[in-house]
Amino acid sequence: xxxxxxxxxxxxxxxxxxxxxxxxxxxxxxxxxxxxxxxxxxxxxxxxxxxxxxxxxxxxxxxxxxxxxxxxxxxxxxxxxxxxxxxxxxxxxxxxxxxxxxxxxxxxxxxxxxxxxxxxxxxxxxxxxxxxxxxxxxxxxxxxxxxxxxxxxxxxxxxxxxxxxxxxxxxxxxxxxxxxxxxxxxxxxxxxxxxxxxxxxxxxxxxxxxxxxxxxxxxxxxxxxxxxxxxxxxxxxxxxxxxxxxxxxxxxxxxxxxxxxxxxxxxxxxxxxxxxxxxxxxxxxxxxxxxxxxxxxxxxxxxxxxxxxxxx
Length: 312
Description:
Pfam families: Asparaginase, Asparaginase_C. By secondary structure, the chain is an alpha/beta fold. It is built from eight helices and 14 strands. The longest helix is centred in the first third of the chain and has 14 residues, at 67-80.
């Protein structure tokens, strides 16, 4: 006798991205509805006990997303979870900024039910597209009881990754995402609802010889926090370091990340621009988070009035 499958309801929030793109004059454009995305995976879901419901939010290229758009994604996830009958959420999203949106949801939504981000490297009308398989695996993951209570996930290219520490590491390969995080990355304490769109955090690239006027410029424009994509283990040039020191003295929080793909920031070098010197002045090392996710975490800290260290 076949054991009955427990029914599960998964809501797919659609935001656009390559998974919803088709070839149009001038390039790929998000044109595909959530209903059409679901239609591709219906045969594989038969007998699974999973019911899938589309929830349209937007049709954007994720490189166009603003902090206000991240607020809308977070708010929509919260709204969907107001329905106790929903067992999980899948968010279809472009790959360019998926890691930012995923960590925003992971940080600002605390519900035991899973939220899974997915997308595609090939458009919807590509005969060898990876979108349907990614979506199917994301839905199945969101329907798994074992996916509860572990935070937001990215399911992509047969990989299941925690949002914390994830980053896109290949421009075109179907296995697009990797992670710097430990197997079970710890999460910050729950955060009350805050608006990231009210906060300006700038990311500055600390290339050799980078001048301090890069820092002066963003501060003059109202920057409330700075993330540095530093060299090596968190090092910057002398002039750039002097500018960061002045920013810290003005009470502007500074997070030091790195342009290096792998490894953590520990800050071991001295000298004016050495990582240890910057940390000793009050900058915060990003640990395994790269600049994109560090920016979201710092913005959440500023918006909530919490010490940024608690988010890293």
